[in-house]
Amino acid sequence: MLPQQRQDQIVRALRADGAGGVKVLAAQLGVSEATIRRDLEQLHEQGRLTRVYGGALAVDGGDEPFAEVSAVHATEKDRIARRAAALVTDGQSLLLDIGTTALRVAQQLHGRSLTVVTSNLAILEELQNDEQIELIILGGFVRRSYRSLVGYLTEESLRQIHVDWLFLGTSGVRPDGRVMDSTMIEVPVKRAMIKAADKVVLLADATKFPGHGVAKVCEPTELSMVVTEPAADQATRTQLTEAGVEVVLA
């Protein structure tokens, strides 16, 4: 991982949790504590965090710009997206969650006869001119920073539909297989999506094992499949398999 990528991940983790210790960040990113200390000093000088004894504090609790997140681990996300899109048969219906990996799945669907339901405004822009795809946009409050729709109207819309597939994003997967998210406002929408789908597929690159997140989205038993990378933590993959989840490597 390049230093810039590692530092971006540090900033994301702090924004999600508010603060982070050197030891925890080093374990999450698989680098030495000395490396994390150097990164924190550089990020403090850049004004991207506040350095404190033993770790750092987030300087802004707001969401990251969508484009910034999209650029991180783009190659890995593309592989996962291609593998996920290949699961769907023409004529089927699918829900696409918010997030940048879901957008990449949408990019793989062009020209196919499918029904796509989403609360992701980036996916609306991607698919709106594709006449082969029946596109359904869920209502709700516009969360501009992450280009998504959330809230009661979004959840109520989901209670009125049912689809073949859900492709779900995550902030992190705990060692016991629990799916977590760092943004509380998105969690009720994700839970409603799970109830609205026959098959629930989690899209998670290797950095999401364990990843981060303070709110539980679902238990592993609520997942049908996880599409990830060979580098994803083996112990967590084993927990998922034992819970009856099919783990697919992209």
What would your notes on this structure say?
With 250 residues, the protein is of the alpha/beta class. The protein is built from 10 helices and 15 strands. α6 packs parallel to α7. The chain is globular. The two termini are 19 Å apart. The relative contact order is 0.12. The mean pLDDT is 89.
Sequence-ordered SSE layout with sheet pairings:
Elements: H1 3-17, E1 19-21, H2 22-29, H3 33-45, E2 49-52, E3 55-58, H4 66-70, H5 74-85, E4 93-96, H6 100-107, E5 114-118, H7 121-127, E6 133-137, E7 141-143, E8 148-150, H8 152-158, E9 163-168, E10 172-173, E11 179-181, H9 187-195, E12 197-203, E13 215-218, E14 225-228, H10 234-242, E15 246-249
Instruction: Report the uncertain regions.
Output: none
Provide mean pLDDT, rounded.
89
Structural class: alpha/beta
Shape verdict? globular
Largest sheet: 7 strands, parallel
What is the β-strand count?
15
Could you give the order of strands across the largest sheet?
6-5-4-9-12-14-15
How far the N terminus sits from the C terminus, by CA atoms, comes to 19 Å
Strand content: 15-25%
Secondary-structure element order, N to C: HEHHEEHHEHEHEEEHEEEHEEEHE
Please count the helical segments.
10
Helix percent reads 25-40%
What is the gyration radius calculated from CA atoms?
A: 18 Å
Summarize the model shown.
37% of the residues lie in helices and 24% in strands. The chain contains 10 helices and 15 strands.
